[in-house]
Specification:
520 residues, 16 helices, 11 strands
Amino acid sequence: MNVTNLLLARANTRRREVMIRLALGANKFRVIRQLLTESLILSVLGACGGLLLAQTGANVLVRMVSTPANPVRLGISLDWRVLLFTAGIAVFTTALSGLAPALRAARTEIGTALREGAGGMTASAGKLRLNKLFVIAQVALSLALLVGAGLFLRTLLNLQHVDLGYTRERLLILRVDGTGAGYKDKQLVRLYDRLRDAFAATPGIRGVAYSENGLLTGTESADDVQVEGYTAKGKDDRNSRWDEVGPHYFSTLAIPMLLGREINERDQPGGPPVCVINQAFAKIFFANRNPIGKHVTDVYGDKRMSFEIIGVSKDTLDHGLRGPVRPRFYSALQQGVPEIPDSVYFEVRTILDPLAELNSLRRALTRVEPNAIISLARPVTELVNDRVRTDQLIARMTSIFACLALLLAAIGIYGVLAYAVSQRTTEIGIRMAVGAEAKAVIAMVLTDMGAMLLAGLAAGLLLSGFVIRLIKSQLVGLQPVDPVVFGSAVMLILLLGVVAGYVPAWRASRVDPVRALRNE
């Protein structure tokens, strides 16, 4: 429809030329063939440009989903079926967009056209209404996409700067498999403690801790629990996440203890099993009661293991970036309850760049146990970026689609106004001949543009409501009806609409009134 409007406006400017050709004896079918040929050239050029853009876009998409840790390597090349499909679309576009202005130009009576000149072809009201409705729909879709893109971009920004409950900078995660080096049972704890001491003694290291599941690694543990003094009301309050952590885990990660103490070297095998719970656990299972000294019973298969609560830690986002924080308890790994894990993740707090210390940490590992290997080494900042990779892709794609829709809407506004102005050239010339100023003509054209924009924005606000309902669950840290996002989207559409509409308005103000009166 946009292309048709532009071609109709272009055909109007050449209408007198076409009529002179017909008056000199040119065949109507030859004139139609000429106009269709010109449209075909435009379509072929557009198709070639589209193929180049598609090739570039495919490579960009691959780079967008590829990461240094998980590189994506795809050989993308043009396929003959794609070329054939593109050629078919080009021919169809030519027939659809070029035939209407060609037939309109060739159908006009020669005598009438020569008397009226270049600006006298009259557009049907129904045709203009249909074109305007199409532009209104484009503006509405553009607003909905811009709102969605804005909400996703703000969600991405919130996720990248969300408070994890611990400092993510200069924190390195290392995974070491103890059983692969030949250790088992209590030997594993001794290995983990020796490695912790060796890592901590390495220059540039501020602190070291270890845990079974690590931070943001994708591993997780959960069991049903029975809490002393609490009666479960349903299935939702019988489950808790849990992790096994080594001594000084919370102080190494700078996770505040709100009550009691953290797990340390005092908690040894043979002593009463202990655990630390987080705020979410305390809020659900203890409400206003003091949890210190109470017991949590973990239902592990057909086993039941009871842990004494020795502390309450601040809530952390240690296994995901999206809330709410789940109830979690942390048992002492060195106590071996329920079992000592085959591998652990070391949380290493560094003074400078974490990756710069990796070689020193590997050498420290080799000195303690040559057969042990580090199977994963990632800074927490990279793990956070991995967690928002999908959000980044969604935000970028919706932004691209919103920009394309906005561009199409701008082209639509320009096309409709250019076509309408070409139909009213004589009228505008007469207005100017009887005293109308250029500013009044520009205001008249921009008023038509403003009516389309306002109608499109009103429809877009309604459409945005449906979009928000679809993506509401994906938003983080903001209200669905965000005034910044909505205000920015509306202002951007208004600005682009004014820019797109001013060109045909300015051209209308340049109509020569003498020529218009002569044509009349």
